[in-house]
Amino acid sequence: MIPRKRYGTKNTDQGVYLGLSKTQVLSPATAGSSSSDIAPPPPPVALVPPPPDTMSCRDRTQEFLSACKFLQSRQNGIQANKPALRAVRQRSEFSLMAKRIGKDLSNTFAKLEKLTILAKRKSLFDDKAVEIEELTYIIKQVSE
To answer: Boundaries of each Syntaxin-5 N-terminal Sly1p-binding domain copy (predicted)?
Structure first.
């Protein structure tokens, strides 16, 4: 692909682009010369704000107050939903307690099964009276 030539004004007409904030305007004396010296930038001009009585302003107090009222009404709407949030929280607390109770019941039934197996396996030489007593004690404590 052949690159296109750009036809336009020369850099000396409008200034030299040195980067985003470094554009410098060439003076007419240096614009005609082909030297690479660039004229120093002009001194900065102090910006003086106009007097307060000539500034145009608009009283927006009522807009601000209406925005505040709107935000307060939105927050009150959220507070109206608090009973629903309480109900959800109570349901979740109930679910956690039910889960804990279910887990305890499951553990108790597992211990009862183990106790049943130990009680059925009575033999003369393999007496597990200590284990039976421990399981019985644990089950009684859990059921109370």
So the answer is: 53-74
Beta carbons of 39 and 24 less than 8 angstroms apart: yes
Q: How far is it, in rounded angstroms, from Cα 143 to Cα 7?
A: 97
Q: How far is 137 from 37, CA to CA, in rounded Å?
A: 101
The β-bridge partners of 24 are 16
From residue 47, give the alpha-carbon distance in Å to each of 8, 51, 56: 34, 12, 18
- One DSSP character per residue, 70-115 reads HHHHHHHHHHHTHHHHHHHHHHHHHHHHHHHHHHHHHHHHHHHHHH
Torsion from C-alpha of 39, 41, 43, 49, nearest 10 degrees? 150
Q: What is the pLDDT of residues 55-108, one digit of tens each?
A: 567 888 999 999 998 888 887 766 656 777 777 888 888 899 999 999 999 999
Cβ neighbors of 42 (< 8 A, separation 6 or more) are 25
Q: How many helices (H) and strands (E) does the chain have?
A: 5, 0
Token pair in block for residue 67? 């925005």
Domain limits of the chain?
A: 98-144
What gap in Å lies between CA 101 and CA 139, rounded to an integer? Answer: 14
Q: Where does residue 25 fall: left (phi above 0), alpha (psi -120 to 50 degrees), or beta otherwise?
A: beta
